[in-house]
Amino acid sequence: MDYKRTADLLEQLKIQNKSYESYLEENQDSFIQNDLKDYWQSILSTCPMKKTDIINKADVGYTFFYDIIKGKKIPSRDTICKIHISMNLGLEPCQNTLKLYNWASLYPKNKRDSIIIYGITHHMALYETDALLKQNNQPQLAKML
Amino acid sequence: MSKYSEFIEKTLESEYTHLQCFKNDDSIKIDLYKHTKIRKKLVLIRSKNRNDHIFRILRGINHPNLPTVFDVCACDDYLMVLESYVEGESLSKLLQKGCVTKKQAVKYTIDVCEALKTLHEKQIIHRDIKPENIIISPDGKAILIDLQAARLVTDTDHKDTINLGTVGYAAPEQYGVHQSTPPTDIYAVGVLLNELIINCHPTVRIPSGKLGKIISKCTETQIYNRYQTVDKLIADLKRYSFFH
After folding, report:
1. C-alpha dist (Å) from residue B118 to A42, A50, B40, B230
2. How confident is the model over A38-53, as pLDDT tens digits?
3. Nearest Cβ partner for B2 among A56, A59, A64
4. Measured between CA atoms, how close is A94 to chain B, in angstroms?
5. Which residues in chain A have Cβ-Cβ distances shorter than 8 Å to B60?
């Protein structure tokens, strides 16, 4: 999947003499898929980890995780962050998933969000991110500590 | 196998001695291990029951009447749970030996209720309270074990109706389509207390007096007529214990 950065896509949309059809043709792969099951399938295909490893690292219930990726259950904002921290695919996929579920994106000016962003972008494990949250008197994601 | 389960298996192999297999059937395997250096025992449960979310909630909680869950690992085919080993004898064995006084029965029931208080606070219903699942420690504490049938109040998994608890201890609503709630466990506590005091089911006979009233209130057929929380049950049991 050729996933382009949001900022690059925005720049392309602003180009005056470019038709929308050509934009669509060039960036088809970058759209968030509305079908949740297909979306998770595409995300998981980019993650080298086994599903059980994601489950254990994200500290989510086994059945719950499978219900999420089948589109049967709606995860909370924190659960989405936990799964993305464990998958270690970077910040943008996490923000895309949050948007897909109509959750607010991680906002750098919010202290708790900024710590989660830091954890994701510095490839920290969930327990490390939780340690940093606890250190800064913020509610933890998984309460592993 | 997941990476973490491989890690657990390797650690057990290298640092622990396998002492005993408590149970080994199609759905569950329970093994006891002892650390070779620090001599601490732990229990490894491999279960096909996918209620890892229950154990994840309880992980790390130290409660005098519950085993400590050290860690949880989801594998492709089963769930692995590492928890503390509870030393002692099961209440069912003590009952068979005729070694439970009335005072102890009330005390053990209060202990079980204290464990349930913590579980219920976390929206967990045990659903299988019975003498076999209660261990009496050498210092006389009752510890509630075996959370294999446990569910969250909010769980809507259809498999919920398969695990009914144990016949006799299961509340009437466990045979229907109603969700398990704290009064479900309270029903089982009432049956337990009756068995401990007069060795029969409340539907056969209930002791007279205050204790009988407590047991009756626990085992009301209609959920809304029972104790709704263990707090009130604990209060009544402690009041009884104080005056008798």
Report:
1. 40, 34, 25, 10
2. 899 999 999 999 999 9
3. A56
4. 23
5. 144
pLDDT tens sequence for chain B (244 residues) = 678 889 999 999 999 999 999 999 999 999 999 999 999 999 999 999 888 999 999 998 999 999 999 999 999 889 999 999 999 999 999 999 988 999 999 999 999 999 999 999 999 999 999 999 999 999 999 999 999 888 888 776 544 444 556 777 888 777 765 678 999 999 999 999 999 999 999 999 999 999 999 999 999 999 999 999 999 999 999 999 988 8
Q: Please judge whether A56 and B73 are an interchain contact, meaning their C-beta atoms are less than 8 angstroms apart.
A: yes
Which fold, B10-84? Answer: Phosphorylase Kinase; domain 1 (3.30.200)
Residue of chain A whose alpha carbon sits nearest to that of B48: A62
For chain A, the structural domain boundaries read 1-31, 36-135
A30: CB partners within 8 A, 6+ apart: A2, A3, A4, A9
pLDDT at A113 over 80: yes
Q: Kindly determine whether residue A62 and residue B56, on different chains, have CB atoms separated by under 8 Å.
A: no
Domain range summary for chain B, segments of one domain joined by +: 10-84, 89-243
Closest Cα in chain A to B55: A61
Backbone angles phi, psi at B26, to 5 degrees: -60, -30
CA distance B237 to chain A (A): 34
Chain B: nearest CA to A83, how far in angstroms?
A: 14
Beta strand B16-24 pairing with B28-35:
antiparallel
Tell me which residues of chain B have a C-beta less than 8 Å from any C-beta of chain A: 2-5, 50-53, 56, 59-60, 72-76, 79, 157
Global pTM reads 0.83
SS3 for A82?
helix
Which CATH class for the B89-243 domain? Answer: mainly alpha
